[in-house]
Write a structure and sequence with these properties.
The chain is an alpha+beta fold. Helix content is 63%, strand content 13%. The strands form two sheets. A four-stranded antiparallel beta sheet has the order 2-3-5-6, with no helix packed on it. It has a two-stranded parallel sheet with strand order 1-4. The two termini are 46 Å apart.
Length: 503
C-alpha cells in the first residue's frame, strides 16, 4: 500500500486506542460513572463535581440542620430581568454571579443563621433574665369563707384596690450543664460558618464545570461547522466528477449522505450548547431568556510537579469542611461533658423589687431576694442514657472527621491521576487529529485526481470527526480535573485561575 494507506491505518488505530483509553479517565471516585454528558464530553469527569456536592450535602445535621441537598448547587434565585442584546459572560463574572445567586450558597447561609440562633438561645441560659410586671387588682374578701369570724366585725372586707409595679431578676450562678451546652452550640455555629464558606468553593467548582461544558460544546459546534464545510467540498467534487462522467453516481450519493449527516450533527451540537447554556444560567441566576456569549476559553495548559503528600498537607490547612468537622468533634465533646454535668448541683439567684399599695400615692417599695441550690438525687437511668447517647455522637463525629480526611486525600490523588492521564490523552488526541486531517486531505486529493473513488474520503471524514470529539473531550476532562484539584485543596474560590491556566 502507499503512504496514504499507511497514514489512514495509523490514524484509525490511534483513534481506536484513544477510545479504549478514554473510559479510564471517565470514572469518578470509587469508579462510578457520572451523569451523561453532551456531544462526547467526558461524562465521568463530572462525577467529581457530583461527588463533592453530595459530600457537602451530607454534612451532619448538627452543623447543617436544614440538610441542603446536593441538587441545590444546580439551582439559583433569578436576579433581575433579561436585557436587550447579548451579554458578554466571562468565567470570573459567572463565578461572581454564582456566589450571589446560587441556591446552595443561599441555603447554607440560612443554615448558618439557624446555628447562630441556637447559639444565642443557649447563651441566654447563662445571662441574667430581667422582666417587668405591672398589675392593678380590685378585691372583696369574705373572711367567713376562711373560717374567720370576729364579734362586731363585718366578715365582708372591701372592695379594695392593690397596685403593684415590680421588676424580676433571675441569674444562673453555677450551671455547668448549661455552660457546656453553650460551648457545644458555639462550636456548632463555627462549623456551620465554615460549611457555608466551603459551599463557596463548591459553587466555584459547579459554575466552572458548567462554563467548561459550554466551552466544549462551542468547540464542538465549531468543529462540526468545519466538518460540514469539508463535506460540502467533497460533495461538490463528487457532483462535478459525476456530471463529467468520471465518477459513478455512488460517489455522489455517498458524499450527499456524509453532508447530511454533518448537518444533523450540527443541529444536535447547537441544541446541546443551548441546553448547557441554560444549565449555566440556572447555576448563576441569569434569566433563562437572557442571551449571552462566553468570552473565555480554556486551552490546554500543563500542570506539572504535583506531589500528593504535599498537596494533602496543603488541603489540611485550607479545607473548610475539615475545619467544620473538627468543630463538630469539639461540639460533641462539649455535649458529653454536659451530659455528665447534669448530675451536678446548680446555683441560681433571683429577686424582685417593686412598689405596691392601694394607689401610687399610697404605696411603698418592697423586695425579695432568693438564693437557691439544687441537685438531682436520683436519676441514674436518665443520666446514664444521656451520657451514652452523647458518647455515641462523639464517636460518630470523630469517625466522620477521620473519614473526611481520608476522602480529601483520595480526592487529591484522584484529581492528580486524572490530570496526568488527561494530559497524555490530550497529546494523543491532538496527534490523532493531525493525522486524521492529513489523511482527509490526501484522500480528497486522490479523489480529485481521479485515482480513487470517494470511499476513503468518507472514511477519513468519519475519522476526523471522531478525532475532533476525542480532542474536545480530553481538553474538557483535563481542565475539569485541574479545577477539581483546586477544590480538593480548598483553594478553588481564590486560586482557580492558577489551576485552569497552569502553574
Amino acid at each position: 500500500m502507499d503512504i496514504m494507506g499507511l497514514n489512514f491505518k495509523s490514524a484509525r488505530l490511534g483513534v481506536l486506542l484513544f477510545t479504549l483509553a478514554a473510559p479510564a479517565i471517565a470514572q469518578g471516585p470509587g469508579g462510578s460513572a457520572g451523569p451523561s454528558a453532551p456531544n462526547g464530553t467526558s461524562s465521568g469527569a463530572q462525577t467529581a463535581v457530583s461527588a463533592a456536592q453530595q459530600q457537602l450535602a451530607n454534612t451532619p445535621g448538627a452543623t447543617n440542620p436544614q440538610q441542603v441537598p446536593a441538587s441545590a448547587f444546580n439551582g439559583s434565585l433569578i436576579q433581575g430581568k433579561a436585557t436587550a442584546g447579548t451579554l458578554d459572560l466571562s468565567l470570573d463574572e459567572a463565578i461572581r454571579r454564582g456566589m450571589q445567586a446560587n441556591l446552595g450558597v443561599i441555603l447554607q447561609s440560612s443554615a448558618q443563621q439557624s446555628a447562630d440562633a441556637s447559639r444565642l438561645q443557649q447563651l441566654q441560659t447563662l445571662l441574667p433574665t430581667v422582666t417587668g410586671a405591672a398589675s392593678i387588682e380590685v378585691e372583696q374578701l369574705n373572711l367567713a369563707a376562711f373560717g374567720l369570724r370576729f364579734p362586731g366585725l363585718n366578715p365582708i372586707v372591701g372592695p379594695f384596690q392593690v397596685e403593684d409595679f415590680r421588676g424580676y431578676l433571675t441569674q444562673s450562678i453555677l450551671n455547668l450543664q448549661s455552660l457546656e451546652s453553650f460551648m457545644a452550640a458555639r462550636h456548632n455555629f463555627a462549623a456551620a460558618k465554615l460549611t457555608a464558606e466551603d459551599a463557596r468553593d463548591m459553587v466555584t467548582l459547579t459554575v466552572g464545570n458548567a462554563y467548561l461544558l459550554c466551552i466544549a460544546d462551542a468547540s464542538r459546534v465549531d468543529a462540526v461547522n468545519a466538518e460540514l464545510a469539508t463535506s460540502k467540498v467533497s460533495l461538490d467534487q463528487a457532483t462535478a466528477a459525476h456530471q463529467a462522467g468520471t465518477s459513478p453516481r455512488l460517489d455522489q450519493l455517498r458524499a450527499q449522505v456524509d453532508y447530511q449527516n454533518e448537518q444533523q450533527s450540527l443541529i444536535s451540537a447547537n441544541n446541546q450548547l443551548a441546553k448547557d447554556k441554560l444549565a449555566l444560567a440556572r447555576v448563576i441566576g441569569l434569566p433563562l431568556d437572557q442571551l449571552f456569549r462566553l468570552t473565555d476559553t480554556a486551552p490546554y495548559a500543563a500542570l506539572d510537579n504535583l506531589d500528593p503528600d504535599t498537596a494533602f498537607q496543603q488541603a489540611l490547612k485550607n479545607r473548610k469542611d475539615l475545619a467544620a468537622a473538627n468543630e463538630q468533634v469539639q461540639a460533641a465533646a462539649a455535649q458529653k461533658k454536659a451530659a455528665f454535668d447534669q448530675q451536678l448541683p446548680t446555683v441560681t439567684a433571683s429577686g424582685d423589687y417593686g412598689d405596691i399599695g392601694t394607689t401610687v400615692a399610697h404605696s411603698h417599695g418592697t423586695f425579695t431576694a432568693t438564693g437557691e441550690a439544687k441537685a438531682p438525687i436520683l436519676q441514674i437511668a436518665k443520666t446514664r442514657g444521656d451520657e451514652k447517647a452523647a458518647d455515641a455522637q462523639y464517636n460518630q463525629a470523630q469517625a466522620r472527621l477521620s473519614d473526611k480526611m481520608q476522602q480529601v486525600n483520595a480526592d487529591i490523588r484522584d484529581s492528580i491521576l486524572d490530570i496526568q492521564s488527561a494530559a497524555k490523552l490530550v497529546e494523543a488526541a491532538k496527534s490523532n487529529l493531525d493525522l486524521a486531517n492529513e489523511e482527509l486531505n490526501e484522500a480528497q486529493e486522490r479523489f480529485h485526481a481521479g485515482v480513487a473513488d470517494n470511499l476513503p474520503v468518507s472514511q477519513a471524514q468519519t475519522t476526523t470527526e471522531q478525532a475532533n470529539d476525542q480532542y474536545i473531550r480530553a481538553l474538557y476532562t483535563h481542565n475539569l480535573a485541574k479545577l477539581s484539584l483546586a477544590r480538593a485543596l480548598g483553594v478553588a474560590q481564590t486560586n482557580y485561575k492558577d489551576y485552569l491556566g497552569g502553574k
